[in-house]
Structures are given as C-alpha cells and as structure tokens.
Design goal:
Number of strands of chain A: 10
CATH class of the largest domain in chain A: Mainly Alpha
Largest interface: A-B, 28 and 28 residues
Distance between the termini of chain A: 38 Å
Oligomer: homodimer
Strand order of the largest sheet of chain A: 2-10-7-5-3-4
Shape of chain A: globular
Radius of gyration of chain A: 20 Å
Strand content of chain A: 5-15%
Number of domains of chain A: 2
Order of helices and strands of chain A: EEHEHHEHEHEEEEEHHHHHHHHH
Helix content of chain A: 40-55%
Amino acid sequence: MDVTKFAIPEVIFGKNSLDYLGPCAQRNGAKRVLLVSDPGLEDAGWVECLVDKLDQAGMHWAYFSDVSSNPRDSQIHRGAEFYASQRADVVIALGGGSPMDLAKGIALIASNGGRIRDYEGANRIQYPLPPMIFIPTTAGSGADISQFAIVTDEERKVKMSIISRTLVPNISIIDPNFLQTKPEWLIKASAIDALSHAVEAYVSVLASPFTEMQSLKAIELVIKNLEEAVRTKSLQSLSKLSIASTAAGMAFSNASLGVDHAIAHSLGGEFDVMHGHVHPVLLPAVMRFNLQACPEKMAMIGEIITDERLSTDEDTAMRGIEALEDFFSRLDIAMNLAELVDDRQKIPDICDLAVKDACVLTNPRSVSKEDCQAICEEVW
Amino acid sequence: MDVTKFAIPEVIFGKNSLDYLGPCAQRNGAKRVLLVSDPGLEDAGWVECLVDKLDQAGMHWAYFSDVSSNPRDSQIHRGAEFYASQRADVVIALGGGSPMDLAKGIALIASNGGRIRDYEGANRIQYPLPPMIFIPTTAGSGADISQFAIVTDEERKVKMSIISRTLVPNISIIDPNFLQTKPEWLIKASAIDALSHAVEAYVSVLASPFTEMQSLKAIELVIKNLEEAVRTKSLQSLSKLSIASTAAGMAFSNASLGVDHAIAHSLGGEFDVMHGHVHPVLLPAVMRFNLQACPEKMAMIGEIITDERLSTDEDTAMRGIEALEDFFSRLDIAMNLAELVDDRQKIPDICDLAVKDACVLTNPRSVSKEDCQAICEEVW
C-alpha cells in the first residue's frame, strides 16, 4: 500500500441530532447562513423547522431552493450570486444528494470564483471554502461525508465529478427521523446507491484498510435491513440504513468509485436519469466484469451477502452476485436499462462519456469503451 | 442509541507519508512552527529529519523537548511560555503518546490561558486551539487521533484526563517506517495499549456502530500481527500494528474507555509506571469483571481472539480472556502488578484515585473502590 488518506467530516448521528444545528453553526462562526434545500422539503415543513432553529440561535439566514434532481451548473452560479448578495458566511444544506452537491458548488464558487466547470476533476480547488454543515434527509448519497460534488454541465450534457478534500463538509448532522417521512421508492434507491458506493469503494484500486472496513459494514447493513426498513419503516431499521450510508460515504470519499458510477454519471447527464435508479441495473453486471481483477474481494462481498463460502473465490463471488440480483428483484425496482433509457442507439454516446469519467481511473479492471458497451448491452 | 458523535483528524498513512509534512503545515497556515519531540528521537536523527523538511518548506521553527514518559503540568506551562515567546502559530509533535499529549497541553494553554488543571474533565475548553499536526512514532497511544490529553498533576500525583473535541489534531501523519527503529519492548507495550483501547471502547457505554467496527478491526490486527511484528520487524506487520493503533484511536476517542484505563492513569500518576506496561496486567481481570454487563460483546471479542464460538456467550468470552492471557504470556512481559509497583499497601490509594477518573463513567459495569481493589488484588 502506498500513502493513503482518510478524511471525513465531524459526524453527529442519531434521533433528534438536528437539535445540534444551532450550536454547530455558532462554533463555525456563522452569523449569516445560506440555507440550501428543495421545494419538497419545504412542503414537508422541514425547512421551516430548520429556520426556526436558526432564529432561536439568533442567526440571519437566506434561503435558496433552485435545485433539480441532477443539480446544474446554472443553479450553482445563481446560488453563488445569492450567497454573495446576502453576505453569507456559512452554507447549511438540507436534503438528499442534489441540494448537498448544489451547496458544495455554491460554497466553491463563492470562495474560489470562476465557473464550476473550471474545477472538474481532482484537486483543482485552491482556496478554502466557507464552513459547510450538511443535514442529509435520505440515506444513500453520502454527499454529506464525501469529497465529491457531482454537477451537470448543461451545455455538454455531462455530469462532472469535482473531487477535493475541501469539499468535505465541516459537520454532518445525520438524523434518521427524516427517513420515516420518505416514500418507499426513495428509501430503496438511496440505500442501493449506498450499497453501490460500498461495493465500488471496496474493490477500488485506492481502497485502504480504513475504507475497506467501512465498505464491508455498509454492505452488510443494507443487505440485512433494507427489506425490513421498507416494510416497517421502523426507526431502528432506518437508522441502520443511515449508518450504512454514512459508512459507505466514508469509504467512497477516500477510495473513490468505479465503472458503475462512471456509467451512472453519464446516464444522469445525458438522460437526467435519477442516480439511485441506475445501480440495480448496472451493479451486478459491473461486479461480474470486475471479478477477474479482484476475486478475493468479490468473494468477501459474496460471503457477506449470502453468509456462505464455496470452494473457490470465484464461486463464492458469483453466488453473491446472483444473490444480489435476487435481492434487487424482491424489491420491485427496474433492473433493465431499457426501463430507464428509451433509445438503445444512445449506448455508444453514453459509453463515450463514461470512459472519460474520473471514476474509471479507480476501477479494479481497466475498462474500454467497448467494455462499457458490453456491460450496457448485457443489462439492456 | 442516543445521539453519538464521531470526530477524527485527517489521516495521512503509509510508508514515507512524512514527506507530506511541509505541504500539510503550509495549508494549515504555518509560518512559525513549534516542534515538540523528545531527546530519544533527537538522538535517532528524526528531529533533524523533520527540521530539514520545515527548512525546505521555508518555515521558521523552534524546538521543545522537555518531556518525561508521563508528561507533567510544569512541562506544559514551560512549553506554552516558549510557544508564546517564539510567536509560533502551529504545533507539530513527533513521538509517542508523551510528546503528543505534551503538545496538546501546550496548544491548549497557549490559546486558552490559565493552568492545565483548570481543564481536567470533559468539554472545559472554550477557545479554538492553534492547528496541530502530529506524527506518531509508536503504534499504540492513539494520541494523534484522540480527543484526550493525559497529563500528570505533580502536586496531586494524579494523571488528569482532559477531554475535548478541540484536542483532536488537524492532521495525523502516520509513517510505519518509524517502528522499524523501535525496541521490542516498546512495540509490544504500544500494541497492547492499542489493544486495550480497542477492547475498552468496544464495551464502553458510549460505543456506537462507528466506533465498534474500528475496535473489532484493531483487536484482530493486534492479535494476528504483534508476534510476527516483534519477531521479524517487517514493514508489513508493523504497518498492521499502525493501522490497529489508528483504528483503536478512532474508537476510544469517540467512545472513551473503562476501568482498566482508570487504574492505569492512577498508577501512572502515583508511581510513574509506563502506561503501556499496565494493560497486560489489568486487562484480562477487567474483562472478567465486566463480562456480566456485556456478555454478547465479550463473546465477540473472544471469537476474534480465538476464531472459535462456544455454546454460550459467557463460555466464548471466557475462552477469549484465557487466550488473551496466553497471548500476553508468550510475549514475555510483566503480568503481575507486583512487577510494576513495589508496595501492596498502596492499592487503596491507587483505587481512590481510579474511581475518580473520567474513564470509569463509561465502563460497562458500575465500579466501586472495592471493585477496583479486588481487581488489583487479583492481579497482584
């Protein structure tokens, strides 16, 4: 192992941890908060709840909610202008991956200037960002933990990966109470996003002992708790999905991802497909593709999924991938690409973009455009 | 689970990670560094090596090395005066637990004023500390990860626990190269300190899923690698001890410790016994004492130590404790209190102090002075 880095935000986790917002903002020097969220959370009353806490803590605040499910460069630039006009000094984000990635983009442009596409790729951010306090309302994106921001470039129709340690928020306040108000499909899509983070980070060429243990814990927690969480919406099972999402975030933020996410980013940019819907389609095929490059690790994943070990790593791994497909099929979710994309002719274009994504660099097996196409055709 | 917090420094880990020192100091705004280390590391040439790196990065530096194996309040106050006289802006510590705890104390007094005993206990630090970059040279103390500083109050002859999130350094640079230059006894004592952190944090009343996975990994790595590391001093096995120490640090920093450490702190303050020598004596007895309060967790520890599970949790746990005693006895280290302390009559005084230590608050079983005495008598 070469030198490895492990950086995460301070995590405050648990039922009613939202009560810590005021003190957290204060000790980060907040006087004028920019609060980023979305209309759905506004309708559900959560934005008002947060604003009340900021009022109680005696803070000025301004609210920005222009965000789509794949956040766009234009939204970031409008948000950054708003941040400046309000003379804000801290960014608080409430929501799933989209408002959080939007908030990262706003904090970046507000402090470093320029256009968001200037920062595409790894380690291109020069100046410190304002303090960021993130409150995830879904259990999956990991945006509250990670050094990634994923933003759609509207002109090029591509999801850019922006990667920098400075994009790790200062504090992540994770309150599983939010999950009880979420629809089934969102709980499933988010948890499977977390699962795909965990799997891809585990086999990444940048995986370290620090990220590997987080990956394995996350895989175990999603497999063992998602069905019960969807069925019962018990706080206990939903909390376990939150822990999984957080652990997976710690893993992928520091080990990066692989070709499943490279294709998912391309699909999100080109077709605006919701990120969480892509993984049940792609992940098993990507795992089969990667198996030859990391049979021991794939066998470990297989053993966690099935609680069984067969006579060879390959058999254990394949049995795990089949069990994962069974798991997805029991969840009543789309499992073919044709259910997400209406035109098979677009596959070459999708794969053109995918092989340029930063996530392919850390995939355990090197991947060509033809490999990508074969994966997409296999799951069509 | 109530609200739980998990905060760790940014970790840079691996062979030659020391090369990151200059850039790390720069991005923490360092212009004038206070470097804290000890005469042993100076003799070994490591201090010079660090100073060269600071010179190359164009930084002023001043060096402070007045530290004993249980760092003292007077050393901290002298160090803080030196920090101020040098107008330093960053603290870099190189060493085992003692120089790092000394450095935390200096950073604390330099920024918050007063005397170190004013901060004894949890969460009594009001103002931010200067940036701290720590470079551990042993694999055990976890001081480079933790929110603890343990300092001897010379007047009262007591080791004070000072606990605050602000005592977590900004960056921990962990280079296993250092361990190859260390004597066997130090590698053993440090690794067993890490093991005791992992065990006590795992059964702590503040343990969370985030700390538990770190504890279990650390226990496994020490048990599986310490003997080989001592025998071969291979970088691979020493690296695994470094990973164990780091993981155990993440665990105990956030979950705290128990009665083994409470007694160890008392012994360190009263008799200046080296911290790492106390745990092989106390830990198995403390585990037996705690077993009734957490049989499932003790069984999990037992399973990791022995790779076996028996028909009841109690049996699995007891088998694990016996195997741990076998493990210690193979290491040729002191296993009776009489080998560390020359006067059995002091046990009541030691236990008087131990039950006042902050670590007893998180022990899984409530513990009286009489319980402490029984443990000390059992291992005399």
